[in-house]
Amino acid sequence: MRFDEAYSGKVFIMSRASEEAAKAVIFGMPMDWTVSFRPGSRFGPNRIREASIGLEEYSPYLDRHLEEVRYHDAGDLLLPFGNPARSLDIIEGYLEELLDKGKFPLGLGGEHLVTWPVIKAMYRKYPDLALIHIDAHADLREEYEGEVLSHSTPVRKACGLIGPENVYSFGIRSGMREEFQFAEMSGMHMSKFEVLEPLKEILPELAGRPVYVTVDIDVLDPAYAPGTGTAEAGGISSKELLASIHAIAGSELDIVGADLVEVAPVYDPTEKTPIAASKFVREMLLGFVK
Prior knowledge:
GO terms for molecular function: agmatinase activity; metal ion binding. Pathway: Amine and polyamine biosynthesis; putrescine biosynthesis via agmatine pathway; putrescine from agmatine: step 1/1. It is an enzyme of class 3 (hydrolase). Keywords: Hydrolase, Manganese, Metal-binding, Polyamine biosynthesis, Putrescine biosynthesis, Spermidine biosynthesis. By secondary structure, the protein is of the alpha/beta class. It has a single domain (5-288), classed as Arginase, Chain A. The chain has helices at residues 44-52, 84-100, 115-125, 154-162, 177-186, 196-202, 238-249, 272-288; strands at residues 24-29, 58-59, 64-65, 71-76, 104-109, 130-134, 167-172, 189-192, 210-216, 254-261. The protein has an 8-stranded parallel beta sheet with strand order 4-1-5-10-9-6-7-8, sandwiched between helices. The chain has a two-stranded antiparallel sheet with strand order 2-3. Helix 4 links the parallel strand 6 and strand 7. The chain starts with 23 loop residues before the first strand and ends with a helix.
Protein backbone atom coordinates (compact mmCIF):
# COMPACT_ATOMS: atom_id res chain seq x y z
CA MET A 1 0.00 0.00 0.00
CA ARG A 2 1.43 3.37 -1.00
CA PHE A 3 -0.22 5.48 1.70
CA ASP A 4 -0.15 5.01 5.42
CA GLU A 5 -3.20 3.19 6.82
CA ALA A 6 -2.71 5.17 10.05
CA TYR A 7 -3.48 8.36 8.15
CA SER A 8 -7.05 8.16 9.58
CA GLY A 9 -8.74 10.62 7.26
CA LYS A 10 -7.14 13.91 8.35
CA VAL A 11 -6.90 16.29 5.42
CA PHE A 12 -5.79 19.85 4.90
CA ILE A 13 -8.73 22.21 5.13
CA MET A 14 -11.01 22.25 2.05
CA SER A 15 -9.18 19.39 0.34
CA ARG A 16 -11.16 17.98 -2.60
CA ALA A 17 -12.04 14.32 -2.55
CA SER A 18 -10.77 13.53 -6.04
CA GLU A 19 -7.16 13.65 -7.18
CA GLU A 20 -8.25 13.44 -10.81
CA ALA A 21 -10.00 16.82 -10.66
CA ALA A 22 -7.23 18.48 -8.66
CA LYS A 23 -4.60 20.85 -9.99
CA ALA A 24 -2.42 20.49 -6.88
CA VAL A 25 -1.79 17.49 -4.64
CA ILE A 26 -0.70 17.76 -1.00
CA PHE A 27 1.18 14.72 0.30
CA GLY A 28 3.08 13.90 3.47
CA MET A 29 6.63 12.56 3.64
CA PRO A 30 6.78 11.39 7.29
CA MET A 31 10.48 10.56 7.52
CA ASP A 32 13.03 11.50 10.18
CA TRP A 33 15.43 8.58 9.84
CA THR A 34 18.64 10.65 9.39
CA VAL A 35 18.22 13.60 11.75
CA SER A 36 21.34 14.70 13.60
CA PHE A 37 19.77 16.12 16.77
CA ARG A 38 16.09 15.57 17.65
CA PRO A 39 13.65 13.24 15.84
CA GLY A 40 9.93 13.86 15.51
CA SER A 41 9.42 15.53 12.14
CA ARG A 42 7.68 12.42 10.86
CA PHE A 43 4.69 13.63 12.88
CA GLY A 44 4.74 17.05 11.21
CA PRO A 45 2.42 16.47 8.23
CA ASN A 46 -0.57 15.36 10.28
CA ARG A 47 -0.18 18.11 12.87
CA ILE A 48 -0.07 20.68 10.06
CA ARG A 49 -3.31 19.23 8.72
CA GLU A 50 -4.95 19.30 12.13
CA ALA A 51 -3.86 22.90 12.69
CA SER A 52 -5.29 23.91 9.31
CA ILE A 53 -8.81 23.38 10.66
CA GLY A 54 -8.38 26.62 12.59
CA LEU A 55 -7.53 28.62 9.47
CA GLU A 56 -9.82 30.92 7.57
CA GLU A 57 -10.23 29.72 4.00
CA TYR A 58 -9.71 33.28 2.72
CA SER A 59 -6.33 35.02 2.46
CA PRO A 60 -6.54 38.81 2.90
CA TYR A 61 -2.92 38.99 1.73
CA LEU A 62 -3.69 37.54 -1.70
CA ASP A 63 -7.45 38.20 -1.90
CA ARG A 64 -8.02 34.57 -2.80
CA HIS A 65 -10.16 31.84 -1.25
CA LEU A 66 -9.22 28.17 -1.03
CA GLU A 67 -12.34 27.31 -3.02
CA GLU A 68 -10.58 28.96 -5.99
CA VAL A 69 -7.80 26.32 -5.99
CA ARG A 70 -8.51 22.69 -6.87
CA TYR A 71 -6.31 20.60 -4.59
CA HIS A 72 -6.40 17.14 -3.09
CA ASP A 73 -4.70 15.91 0.09
CA ALA A 74 -3.44 12.42 -0.71
CA GLY A 75 -2.28 11.64 2.84
CA ASP A 76 1.11 10.42 3.99
CA LEU A 77 3.31 8.18 1.91
CA LEU A 78 4.00 4.86 3.59
CA LEU A 79 7.76 4.98 4.19
CA PRO A 80 9.68 2.04 5.71
CA PHE A 81 10.87 3.02 9.16
CA GLY A 82 14.65 3.41 9.41
CA ASN A 83 15.29 2.79 5.70
CA PRO A 84 16.21 6.13 4.09
CA ALA A 85 17.27 4.74 0.70
CA ARG A 86 14.00 2.89 0.15
CA SER A 87 12.00 5.82 1.50
CA LEU A 88 13.63 8.20 -0.97
CA ASP A 89 12.89 5.80 -3.84
CA ILE A 90 9.20 5.73 -2.86
CA ILE A 91 9.04 9.54 -2.76
CA GLU A 92 10.77 9.88 -6.12
CA GLY A 93 8.45 7.32 -7.74
CA TYR A 94 5.37 9.06 -6.41
CA LEU A 95 6.58 12.44 -7.68
CA GLU A 96 7.11 11.02 -11.14
CA GLU A 97 3.50 9.85 -11.17
CA LEU A 98 2.21 13.24 -10.04
CA LEU A 99 4.24 15.08 -12.65
CA ASP A 100 3.14 12.68 -15.39
CA LYS A 101 -0.45 13.58 -14.46
CA GLY A 102 0.32 17.30 -14.66
CA LYS A 103 -0.20 17.93 -10.93
CA PHE A 104 1.42 20.62 -8.80
CA PRO A 105 3.13 18.80 -5.89
CA LEU A 106 3.05 20.35 -2.43
CA GLY A 107 4.94 18.19 0.05
CA LEU A 108 4.86 18.19 3.85
CA GLY A 109 7.92 16.92 5.72
CA GLY A 110 9.49 15.19 7.41
CA GLU A 111 13.20 15.93 7.56
CA HIS A 112 14.80 17.98 4.80
CA LEU A 113 16.36 14.99 3.04
CA VAL A 114 12.90 14.26 1.60
CA THR A 115 13.36 17.21 -0.75
CA TRP A 116 16.20 15.45 -2.58
CA PRO A 117 14.14 12.78 -4.42
CA VAL A 118 11.57 15.43 -5.27
CA ILE A 119 14.25 17.54 -6.95
CA LYS A 120 15.47 14.52 -8.90
CA ALA A 121 12.00 13.89 -10.30
CA MET A 122 11.49 17.60 -10.98
CA TYR A 123 14.78 17.90 -12.84
CA ARG A 124 13.85 15.10 -15.23
CA LYS A 125 10.71 17.01 -16.20
CA TYR A 126 12.28 20.49 -16.06
CA PRO A 127 15.95 20.37 -17.14
CA ASP A 128 16.30 24.15 -16.62
CA LEU A 129 15.02 23.90 -13.04
CA ALA A 130 16.06 26.43 -10.39
CA LEU A 131 15.78 25.89 -6.64
CA ILE A 132 14.78 28.47 -4.04
CA HIS A 133 15.85 27.21 -0.62
CA ILE A 134 14.73 29.04 2.55
CA ASP A 135 16.37 27.63 5.67
CA ALA A 136 18.50 28.28 8.76
CA HIS A 137 21.02 25.65 7.65
CA ALA A 138 23.16 25.47 4.54
CA ASP A 139 22.51 21.73 4.02
CA LEU A 140 25.67 21.64 1.89
CA ARG A 141 27.49 18.78 3.54
CA GLU A 142 28.57 15.84 1.43
CA GLU A 143 28.00 13.53 4.40
CA TYR A 144 27.32 13.63 8.12
CA GLU A 145 29.53 11.37 10.25
CA GLY A 146 30.07 9.13 7.24
CA GLU A 147 26.41 8.99 6.16
CA VAL A 148 25.79 10.44 2.70
CA LEU A 149 22.01 10.19 3.13
CA SER A 150 21.50 12.89 5.75
CA HIS A 151 19.18 15.82 6.25
CA SER A 152 22.29 18.01 6.15
CA THR A 153 23.04 17.08 2.51
CA PRO A 154 20.06 17.76 0.18
CA VAL A 155 21.16 21.16 -1.14
CA ARG A 156 24.69 19.91 -1.86
CA LYS A 157 23.13 17.02 -3.78
CA ALA A 158 20.93 19.49 -5.66
CA CYS A 159 23.98 21.54 -6.60
CA GLY A 160 25.57 18.44 -8.08
CA LEU A 161 22.46 17.64 -10.12
CA ILE A 162 21.09 20.95 -11.40
CA GLY A 163 24.28 23.02 -11.08
CA PRO A 164 25.17 25.30 -8.17
CA GLU A 165 24.45 28.38 -10.28
CA ASN A 166 20.78 27.31 -10.26
CA VAL A 167 20.53 27.07 -6.46
CA TYR A 168 19.43 30.10 -4.40
CA SER A 169 19.58 29.83 -0.60
CA PHE A 170 18.18 32.43 1.81
CA GLY A 171 18.21 32.92 5.57
CA ILE A 172 21.24 30.71 6.15
CA ARG A 173 22.82 31.19 9.56
CA SER A 174 24.33 27.80 10.41
CA GLY A 175 26.77 25.38 8.83
CA MET A 176 30.37 24.22 8.68
CA ARG A 177 33.01 26.63 7.42
CA GLU A 178 33.48 24.31 4.44
CA GLU A 179 29.83 24.69 3.49
CA PHE A 180 30.10 28.47 3.31
CA GLN A 181 33.35 28.15 1.37
CA PHE A 182 31.65 25.82 -1.11
CA ALA A 183 28.80 28.29 -1.56
CA GLU A 184 31.24 31.12 -2.27
CA MET A 185 33.43 29.17 -4.68
CA SER A 186 30.82 27.12 -6.53
CA GLY A 187 28.74 29.93 -7.98
CA MET A 188 25.55 29.23 -6.08
CA HIS A 189 23.69 32.11 -4.48
CA MET A 190 23.61 32.25 -0.69
CA SER A 191 22.08 35.06 1.36
CA LYS A 192 23.15 34.77 4.98
CA PHE A 193 20.75 35.70 7.78
CA GLU A 194 18.18 37.60 5.67
CA VAL A 195 15.44 36.38 3.36
CA LEU A 196 12.97 38.97 2.04
CA GLU A 197 15.16 41.75 0.66
CA PRO A 198 17.79 39.55 -1.05
CA LEU A 199 14.99 37.34 -2.37
CA LYS A 200 13.25 40.32 -3.99
CA GLU A 201 16.53 41.27 -5.66
CA ILE A 202 16.97 37.80 -7.14
CA LEU A 203 13.42 37.14 -8.37
CA PRO A 204 13.66 39.19 -11.61
CA GLU A 205 16.56 37.11 -12.90
CA LEU A 206 14.50 33.92 -12.44
CA ALA A 207 11.50 35.26 -14.36
CA GLY A 208 9.93 32.67 -16.65
CA ARG A 209 11.99 29.78 -15.32
CA PRO A 210 10.58 26.66 -13.66
CA VAL A 211 11.37 26.99 -9.94
CA TYR A 212 10.95 24.61 -7.03
CA VAL A 213 10.60 26.18 -3.57
CA THR A 214 11.63 24.39 -0.39
CA VAL A 215 11.02 25.96 3.03
CA ASP A 216 12.52 24.60 6.24
CA ILE A 217 10.45 25.83 9.19
CA ASP A 218 13.65 26.40 11.19
CA VAL A 219 14.39 29.50 9.11
CA LEU A 220 12.08 31.08 11.68
CA ASP A 221 13.51 32.14 15.00
CA PRO A 222 12.68 29.56 17.71
CA ALA A 223 10.46 32.21 19.30
CA TYR A 224 8.10 31.70 16.34
CA ALA A 225 8.72 27.99 15.69
CA PRO A 226 10.16 26.01 18.60
CA GLY A 227 8.73 22.77 17.22
CA THR A 228 11.60 21.70 14.98
CA GLY A 229 14.42 19.23 15.28
CA THR A 230 17.37 21.60 14.93
CA ALA A 231 16.26 25.00 16.18
CA GLU A 232 18.68 27.85 15.49
CA ALA A 233 18.58 31.22 17.28
CA GLY A 234 18.64 34.44 15.28
CA GLY A 235 16.00 33.65 12.69
CA ILE A 236 13.36 35.61 10.85
CA SER A 237 9.78 36.26 11.94
CA SER A 238 6.62 34.58 10.71
CA LYS A 239 5.64 37.90 9.15
CA GLU A 240 8.83 37.99 7.06
CA LEU A 241 8.38 34.41 5.86
CA LEU A 242 4.80 35.20 4.83
CA ALA A 243 6.05 38.27 2.95
CA SER A 244 8.70 36.13 1.24
CA ILE A 245 6.11 33.59 0.10
CA HIS A 246 3.98 36.45 -1.22
CA ALA A 247 6.97 37.96 -3.05
CA ILE A 248 7.52 34.64 -4.83
CA ALA A 249 3.81 34.34 -5.56
CA GLY A 250 3.69 37.83 -7.06
CA SER A 251 6.74 37.32 -9.27
CA GLU A 252 6.95 36.10 -12.84
CA LEU A 253 8.44 32.75 -11.84
CA ASP A 254 6.93 29.50 -13.06
CA ILE A 255 6.55 27.78 -9.69
CA VAL A 256 6.33 24.05 -10.44
CA GLY A 257 6.26 22.63 -6.91
CA ALA A 258 7.03 23.32 -3.27
CA ASP A 259 7.46 21.76 0.13
CA LEU A 260 7.56 22.72 3.81
CA VAL A 261 9.67 20.53 6.07
CA GLU A 262 11.08 19.92 9.58
CA VAL A 263 7.99 20.60 11.71
CA ALA A 264 8.48 18.45 14.82
CA PRO A 265 5.38 19.11 16.94
CA VAL A 266 6.48 17.22 20.06
CA TYR A 267 8.80 20.11 21.00
CA ASP A 268 6.04 22.71 20.89
CA PRO A 269 3.19 22.17 23.35
CA THR A 270 1.80 25.60 22.38
CA GLU A 271 1.34 24.35 18.78
CA LYS A 272 2.50 27.68 17.39
CA THR A 273 4.78 25.82 14.94
CA PRO A 274 2.14 23.70 13.15
CA ILE A 275 -0.29 26.64 13.30
CA ALA A 276 2.23 28.84 11.50
CA ALA A 277 3.13 26.05 9.08
CA SER A 278 -0.50 25.50 8.11
CA LYS A 279 -0.84 29.19 7.27
CA PHE A 280 2.29 29.08 5.12
CA VAL A 281 0.86 26.07 3.28
CA ARG A 282 -2.40 27.94 2.69
CA GLU A 283 -0.50 30.90 1.23
CA MET A 284 1.58 28.58 -0.98
CA LEU A 285 -1.58 26.98 -2.33
CA LEU A 286 -3.19 30.33 -3.03
CA GLY A 287 -0.06 32.03 -4.32
CA PHE A 288 1.83 29.32 -6.20
CA VAL A 289 -0.99 27.32 -7.82
CA LYS A 290 -2.29 29.49 -10.62
